[in-house]
Design brief:
The complex is a heterodimer of chains A (203) and B (656). Chain A is 53% helix and 15% strand. Chain A is an alpha+beta fold. Chain A starts with a helix and ends with a helix. Chain B has 656 residues and is an alpha+beta fold. Helix content of chain B is 45%, strand content 17%. Chain B contains 18 helices and 26 strands. Classes of the chains: A alpha+beta (203), B alpha+beta (656). At the A-B interface, strand 1, helix 2, helix 3, strand 4 and strand 5 of A face strand 19, strand 20, helix 15, strand 22 and strand 23 of B. Strand 4 (84-85) of chain A pairs antiparallel with strand 26 (608-609) of chain B.
């Protein structure tokens, strides 16, 4: 009993100095996370949370254990304050403090006793329990549906930003073009405008 | 005459006196007062209302006094809502009902208000881990309207995690933290809606009365008729008088929620005695059951003691305590079942004596089981008989001619049994004996389980051979196991578990409820996982076992703690793809083509925080906005689901 209580306390300490990261690209690996966060704190351990039941194209999640709870707080506030981008841009990574249920090696809570019981069909609570079961299934379906909706929203925003990026690229390409082939220079002379000295020197 | 009429409407009453103050000794201080049917004391947390504000202010009463002109005043130490100090939060997350207590020196810490500005009492619990703070129970934290554990220094404009000073605004720190006595009082005070209506009338009628204050520094608003009204002043903001206003809708909403909580409390109290009654009914039912079942369950108890013996040999000094517990359990069981004929002797000390007693027990139990088998001729019994036969051979028990005949008939099944027996030889002697006995018991009990389910509450016990297995074989990665099990139809998804359960506890639950050995893995929580329903994947040894578990849980109800019926379905896991799609990372196509022409590898930008002066930052902020919307959607969904579940579970009367 004492040893299990000590394990549980040690586990709590570990949870307090661990940071949960998600919205990460599938390209992100452990070394990428270590390199990214070494700017702020010493990374002790990185564990990726596998996706067993969700949609297959969920972003990646990871638990990053740091050397102290204080460092964990600093990283959390930093990532919350600025968009922190990892292995690509512009979608930022999100950070949250870790919770016990996020760990797969969660120890048994000491001094907890679990009791189970089969209900008789004649029991008045039997129908109520059936309702609770159906409600649980309905809630699971709702969660799945909301997941799908949010993924669609992400897709829309991604497409929209892709268009924006193309437009920006074309704009800058065009500006660079007219500067390079001296079209701007000739137009400036025609309209009696003064061109910047930098470009004038190129002549 | 007018004042006499007011007293009937106001329902105000002073409490304990504290002393006189002021320059002329004409100011009377108090420790408590009763206002509108609610009793307030020093250091209570209260709501204060100000016209035009969407939310009440919240503060703590530090001083209460009455001036010589009969005006009543209170000095308030303020709490801050997170939205009020948004610029100073620095990105730290706050609880949904969290407040920050003012500390330090400066504007916004304390000020003086008319007593009539108080609109109600507020239940605030301090959850600071300071040694000086008596930490509240989980129930108190849940019942609290607000919680706080951090402070906001109004001078430095900074959030403090701890308070180092002994005093805030001249008040001892012990009065800031939870007070054990006041916690009890808070639970009792529940103002009614009727009183609020009365106070509304009082406020309306009080418009005529003019109250003046001696302190000239307070700003006053003069109306055309020349009368002056007191104002609630906070951070030097001027506003109209409170007295003309009626209580807002939010008060009614809170009253409704309070009454709902009260009803919930009452319903909780009622469920307890009924649960006890049902437990008694369960005991009576057990007495009525057949003798054979009683004997079998008695065998279970013996098995449990065997396990405890094994632990005692390995364990420390606490073994003796556990032994006493076991004996007391055995005694209580004996009282319930008078039909049991097999006596349980005391466990003697010493290894030799233990061995002798074990042999005696096993022999007796074997005899009983062999008698039953002769009566029944079912096919299932043959396998059971083989187990018993092996044990009998080991102990050189006498064999009858009938037994020899049956052995020959069941030659094929004997070959199957040889494999596990080889494994068992590797284990220790004690583990061997334990596993032999438990295997017999489990195989014998399973026919009865199919006929009848035990409707009594069962405590989840540890699965046998849990540790021995892992010592001898290397663990296959979970993904491979899951994939194989899914293809063979042995994978089951469990839902509606308590999210805080661990994987081994799930295995124990399955063992206790179904007598099936399995491997379980709790699905790890992510940012979007449901807080109400934990999920786990369970791998059984046979597809028939998986199917029977799913069918039983679909037809019947296995109730866990807090009224959670277990939900099972065939598991359909999601395996990672080789090239998963990820939205939000963009690369300019032309640049990529140029890079490929130069035969340069694809380069990804290094991890960095974006600066707020470029396109990348704007796009990043758009993603943050989308993320916040998603967070809000998830929170609303889970809150709604939580309400639905709590309504339905409140009706459940039996809770283990």
């Amino acid at each position: 009993m004492e040893s299990s209580a000590e394990k549980y306390a040690a586990f709590k300490q570990k949870v307090s100095r661990t940071v949960y990261l998600d919205n990460m690209s599938p390209q992100v690996t452990e070394s990428v996370i270590r390199t990214a966060l070494d700017q702020f704190a010493t990374v002790k351990n990185v564990k990726f949370i596998p996706n067993y039941i969700g949609p297959s194209n969920q972003p990646q999640c990871a638990l990053v254990e740091l050397d102290s709870a204080k460092k964990a707080k600093e990283i959390l506030s930093m990532i919350a304050g600025y968009p922190f981008m990892m292995s690509g841009q512009p979608r930022p990574v999100r950070a949250r403090p870790a919770v016990m249920e996020m760990f797969d090696d969660q120890p048994i809570k000491p001094n907890r006793k679990i009791k189970i019981r089969w209900l008789e069909p004649s029991d008045p609570d039997f129908e109520l329990a059936k309702e609770v079961k159906n409600l649980t299934r309905k809630h699971a379906a709702e969660v799945e549906f909301l997941d799908k909706l949010l993924l669609e929203d992400e897709e829309k925003l991604a497409k929209q930003q892709e268009e924006t990026l193309k437009v920006h690229y074309k704009k800058f390409k065009m500006i660079e073009g007219i500067m390079a082939d001296k079209t701007a220079h000739r137009l400036a002379r025609k309209y009696n405008l003064h061109v910047a000295d930098d470009w004038a020197r190129l002549d | 005459m007018v004042e006499a009429g007011e007293e009937e409407v106001i329902e105000f009453k002073w409490g304990t006196r504290k002393g006189l103050g002021g320059k002329k000794k004409d100011v009377q201080f108090y420790e408590s007062f009763t206002y509108d049917g609610v009793e307030y004391s020093l250091f209570d947390s209260v709501f204060l209302y100000k016209e035009g504000e969407p939310e009440h202010y919240i503060g703590k009463i530090l001083k209460i006094w009455e001036n010589s002109d009969k005006s009543k005043k209170v000095k308030i130490l303020w709490y801050f809502r997170p939205s009020e100090i948004l610029n100073f939060l620095e990105g730290s997350e706050t609880l949904e009902n969290e407040l920050f207590l003012a500390s330090g020196e400066g504007e916004g810490l304390v000020n003086v208000n008319p007593l009539e500005a108080i609109s109600g009492k507020c239940n605030i619990v301090c959850i600071s881990k300071d040694i000086r703070n008596p930490y509240p129970s989980d129930e108190e934290v849940q019942m609290a309207e607000f919680v706080f554990y951090r402070f906001f220094d109004v001078g430095m404009r900074k959030i403090l995690d701890k308070i180092v000073v002994d005093k805030i605004a001249g008040i001892e720190v012990k009065n800031i933290f939870n007070n054990l006595d006041s916690q009890k009082v808070v639970g009792l005070v529940k103002p009614d809606l009727d009183n609020k209506e009365v106070s509304g009338n009082f406020m309306a009628s009080n418009e005529v009365v003019a109250l003046s204050s001696q302190k000239k520094s307070q700003p006053l608003i003069e109306k055309p008729d020349g009368k002056c009204f007191d104002t609630l002043v906070r951070e030097n903001a001027a506003s109209k008088s409170l007295l003309g206003e009626k209580p807002t809708c939010s008060i009614g909403v809170k009253e409704a929620s309070k009454s709902a909580n009260a009803l919930h409390t009452i319903s909780n109290k009622k469920t307890v005695p009924q649960a006890k009654v049902e437990e008694k009914r369960g005991c009576k039912d057990s007495l009525v059951k057949q003798k054979s079942f009683a004997k079998l369950s008695h065998g279970l108890i013996a098995g449990l003691e065997m396990k405890e013996i094994t632990k005692m040999d390995d364990g420390s000094g606490k073994g003796s305590i556990e032994k006493n517990i076991l004996m007391s359990r055995g005694d209580s069981k004996r009282d319930d079942r008078k039909d049991v004929g097999v006596p349980i002797g005391q466990i003697k000390k010493g290894l030799e004596e233990e061995n002798a007693s074990k042999k005696g027990k096993r022999g007796g139990f074997g005899k009983v089981s062999s008698l039953k088998k002769n009566n029944n001729g079912q096919n299932r019994r043959l396998i059971t008989y083989d187990d018993d036969n092996n044990d009998d051979l080991k102990t050189i028990a006498p064999c009858s001619s009938k037994e020899k005949y049956k052995v020959q008939r069941a030659m094929d099944s004997c070959d199957v049994e040889e494999l596990p027996s080889k494994k068992l030889k590797i284990d220790k002697k004690l583990a061997k004996l334990t596993s032999d006995k438990l295997r017999k018991e489990s195989s014998m009990i399973s026919p009865n389980v199919e006929h009848k389910l035990d409707f009594r509450p069962m405590e989840v016990t540890r699965r046998p051979n849990d540790e021995d297995r892992s010592k001898w074989f290397k663990e296959i990665p979970w993904e491979e196991k899951m994939k194989t099990a899914y293809e063979q139809g042995r994978l089951v998804l469990l839902q509606n578990l308590d999210p805080s359960l661990s994987s081994s506890e799930v295995q124990n639950i399955i063992w206790t409820g179904f007598k099936e050995s399995c491997t379980a893995r709790m699905i790890q929580k992510t940012a979007y996982s449901s807080p109400h329903s934990g999920q786990a994947f369970v791998i059984f040894k046979k597809s028939e076992a998986a199917e029977s578990v799913v069918r039983k849980l679909d037809e019947g109800c296995l109730l866990m703690s807090n009224g959670r019926p277990l939900v099972a379905s065939s598991g359909v896991p999601c395996f990672p793809k080789k090239k998963p799609i990820f939205y939000g990372h963009h690369v300019v196509d032309q640049l990529r083509m140029m890079q490929m022409q130069r035969e340069i590898k694809d380069v990804v930008s290094t991890s960095h925080c974006s600066q707020p002066n470029n396109i990348e930052y704007d796009m990043g902020i758009e993603w943050c906005l989308l993320q916040e919307r998603a967070n809000k959607s998830w929170r609303m969904l889970y809150q709604q689901q939580g309400e639905e579940l709590s309504k339905l579970k409140a009706k459940l009367k039996s809770k283990i």
